[in-house]
Amino acid sequence: MSVQFVAGNWKLNKGPKEALEFLYEFKEIVPENKLNQFILFLPALTLGAVAKSLAETELGWGGQNVFFEDEGAFTGENSAAVLRELGASYCLVGHSERRQIFGETDDWMAKKVALLQNHQIIPMLCVGETLEQRKAGQTIEVITNQLRAGLKEADLSGQLAFAYEPVWAIGTGEVATPEMAEEAHAALRTELKKLSGTSGTDFPILYGGSVKPENSKELSVQPNIDGFLVGGASLKPQSFFDIYKNC
Ligand code: PGA
């Protein structure tokens, strides 16, 4: 499979000024007809401030997280309805940092996926095993369980995207081998087909975890890897683009 999307997860990096500088530089180096193959996940405050500039590009873009209710007494949370109002078309759900640092549960993921779909925002559901789980031979069980749980309330005939991100490979410089990644992606694809019938073949499944321009090619040639979710290397326009270009 060739690369359909390269998505950048900026995490808690870049304010509005840096984001606009990035956009300016990125548009200089990426051919215009390729821009729609990139997605940016921006920090919420930055996204709100630069939404208008993002809307003027062909880029896909969205939030890193929303709550599973649109409004109410939920101090500090972000709303999917507002994300839609701003013009976003994607949102991450269940990134391992949300699961591990903020204690978010599979039940929350299921509600978030359904709510985002109701707002015509494509949820990108993230799954991945810890190092302990991998060593214990539980990888496939863990990620397929996370997948099923996250899709419990989803419309499987609607639009969905996925990311396989082994927790031990995120921000560590340690990337999964192409074989490890392909095994996980193939298992997710099989599960998606079971759950949704033939549409399971069409959902993009991105690999994430220390993706760089140097390792993107060997991962991209795997049949079930449809692109990448990139943290650190998405912060610089050139390295973000090179991940795509090198494939
Ligand atoms: P990384 O992060 O590319 O810095 O490992 C990936 C992610 O967390 O999405």
Please provide a brief summary of the model:
The chain has 247 residues and is α/β, with parallel strands linked by helices. Helices cover 41% and strands 15% of the residues. The chain has helices spanning 16-29, 44-55, 80-86, 96-101, 106-118, 131-135, 139-150, 178-196, 216-220, 237-245, and strands at 5-9, 38-42, 60-63, 90-93, 122-127, 161-164, 205-208, 227-230.
Describe this structure in words.
- With 247 residues, the protein is an alpha/beta fold.
- It is 41% helix and 15% strand.
- The protein has ten helices and eight strands.
- The protein has helices at residues 16-29, 44-55, 80-86, 96-101, 106-118, 131-135, 139-150, 178-196, 216-220, 237-245, and strands spanning 5-9, 38-42, 60-63, 90-93, 122-127, 161-164, 205-208, 227-230.
- It has an eight-stranded parallel barrel with strand order 1-2-3-4-5-6-7-8, surrounded by five helices.
- Helix 1 (16-29) crosses helix 2 (44-55).
- The mean pLDDT is 96.
- It binds 2-phosphoglycolic acid (PGA).
Rg from Cα:
17 Å
Task: Work out the number of β strands.
Answer: 8
How many angstroms separate the termini? 11 Å
How helical, in percent, are the residues? 40-55%
Question: Any idea what the shape is?
Answer: globular
Keywords:
247 residues; 8 strands; 15% strand; 10 helices; eight-stranded parallel barrel
Topology, element by element:
Layout: E1 5-9, H1 16-29, E2 38-42, H2 44-55, E3 60-63, H3 80-86, E4 90-93, H4 96-101, H5 106-118, E5 122-127, H6 131-135, H7 139-150, E6 161-164, H8 178-196, E7 205-208, H9 216-220, E8 227-230, H10 237-245
Parallel strand pairs: 1-2, 1-8, 2-3, 3-4, 4-5, 5-6, 6-7, 7-8
Helix pairs in contact: 1-2, 7-8
The structure holds 2-phosphoglycolic acid.
